[in-house]
Design goal:
Blueprint: E1 3-6, H1 10-19, E2 25-28, H2 33-38, E3 53-56, H3 59-62, E4 67-70, H4 74-81, E5 92-95, H5 108-115, E6 120-125, H6 130-134, E7 139-145, H7 148-158, E8 163-168, H8 171-193, H9 198-218, H10 223-226, H11 229-240, H12 245-255, H13 266-281, H14 286-295, H15 301-309
Parallel strand pairs: 1-2, 1-4, 2-3, 4-5, 5-6, 7-8
Antiparallel strand pairs: 6-7
Helix pairs in contact: 4-5, 8-9, 8-11, 8-12, 8-13, 8-14, 9-11, 13-14, 14-15
The structure holds NADPH dihydro-nicotinamide-adenine-dinucleotide phosphate and 1,3-dihydroxyacetonephosphate (13P).
NADPH dihydro-nicotinamide-adenine-dinucleotide phosphate is lined by residues 7-12, 29-31, 43, 71-74, 76, 79-80, 96-99, 128-130, 264, 266.
EC number: 1.1.1.94
Keywords: Cytoplasm, Lipid biosynthesis, Lipid metabolism, NAD, NADP, Nucleotide-binding, Oxidoreductase, Phospholipid biosynthesis, Phospholipid metabolism
Domain Glycerol-3-phosphate dehydrogenase NAD-dependent C-terminal: 170-305
Length: 316
């Protein structure tokens, strides 16, 4: 089976580099010139693309392959897919992004399934920094697909000597874990940036995980998915590493510093989307609510901590 990756940002390029160990890969970019000129992505500087990767800006050509990976930021995924006229029947579409779409409230698998119902949607998610994958450092991810037979094929096709994929049929849990951990990482970064300490971060991670599990249960996701790579695994990585952009945004908010708005930070829009869902459904998602307000500049870190700590005492 042949593979195309759409989106030559940090993650799409890193995945293409890893997959090139298995055979030819097509990497589609909306602007091919930086990639063609230097055989490097500006978002993964210093890492040269292997010859197995063909770069193209021709959408139709890239769509000819059987397995299509979409590494386009969450809020742009729906618009990008609407440019594709074909129904992509018989293709495997693998979401490689994390978040909840503000317009629809859907996650990436939801968007793929809604836009291209004749194709098979799946998601590749879990704890991984693009630079680690590109350097061939050991990484384990979740590949979730509701059709287990197709999931197995994709799992084998996308596993490489350094990228180990575990399979699941719980696409809802997998996409929620990846989306929500980014919100928690902003909260943890903010706490650390404001000097609130490691204990506060541990509390936010644990209560954040409780919030993730509670919401996932309301969507009939499996608790073991939340406890796996796409949930707890990615929460642990993103809430504790300075390499995470979501955590970095939190740090900047906590330190009252500016943050470059061109950097992809999925957790800010996802917090807003989750806050809307919480209002519509009556579910309690206090950390998502706090991060939505914080990232929109409506409150300070001090306000948020006072709000979180002054809620009524309850059972764990
Ligand atoms: N970086 C990482 O370590 C990881 C990232 N992810 C996830 O991968 C997804 C992508 O992130 P990442 O690669 O890091 O982000 P980057 O900011 O590095 O790259 C985003 C890419 O998407 C392209 N893009 C943006 N909007 C559109 C659009 N409307 N149509 C077509 N292409 C578009 C950009 O093109 P252009 O260059 O032309 O602007 C760029 O190539 C996110 O959901 C992220 O959470 C998951 C795991 C790890
Ligand atoms: O998803 C990631 C790690 O699994 C990357 O995190 P950031 O988007 O916060 O950099």
């Amino acid at each position: 089976m042949s593979v195309s990756v759409f989106g030559a940002g940090a993650f799409g390029t890193a995945l293409a580099i890893s997959l090139a160990q298995n055979g030819p890969v097509t990497l589609w970019a909306r602007d091919v010139s930086p990639l063609e000129n230097k055989r490097q992505s500006p978002r993964l500087p210093g890492i040269t693309l292997p010859d197995q990767i063909s770069i193209t800006g021709d959408l139709e050509q890239a769509l000819e392959n059987d397995t299509l990976l979409f590494s386009i930021p969450m809020q742009n995924l729906s618009g990008f897919l609407s440019r594709i006229n074909s129904d992509l029947e018989g293709k495997a579409l693998v979401a490689c992004c994390k978040g909840v779409d503000l317009r629809s409230g859907l996650g990436p698998v939801g968007i793929l399934s809604e836009t291209k119902p004749k194709a098979q949607a799946a998601i590749l998610t879990g704890p991984s920094f693009a630079a680690d994958i590109a350097k061939g450092l050991p990484t384990a991810l979740t590949l979730a697909c509701t059709d287990d037979a197709i999931g197995k094929e994709i799992q084998h096709q996308l596993s490489t000597p350094s990228l180990r994929l575990y399979r699941s049929t719980d696409t809802v849990g997998a996409e929620l874990g990846g989306a929500l951990k980014n919100v928690m990482a902003i909260a943890c970064g903010a706490a650390m940036g404001a000097g609130l300490g490691d204990s506060a971060r541990a509390a936010l991670m644990t209560r954040g995980f409780a919030e993730m599990t509670r919401f996932a249960a309301s969507r009939e996701a499996r608790p073991e998915t939340m406890a796996g790579l796409s949930g707890l695994g990615d929460l642990a990585l993103t809430c504790t590493s300075d390499l995470s952009r979501n955590y970095q945004l939190g740090l900047a908010l906590g330190r009252k510093e500016a943050f470059d708005p061109s950097i992809t930070v999925e957790g800010a829009a996802t917090a807003q989307a989750m806050d809307r869902i919480a209002i519509d459904t009556g579910l309690s998602l206090p950390i998502c609510h706090a991060v939505a307000a914080l990232t929109q500049g409506r409150v300070t870190v001090d306000d948020v901590m006072t709000q979180l700590l002054s809620r009524p005492l309850k059972e764990e």
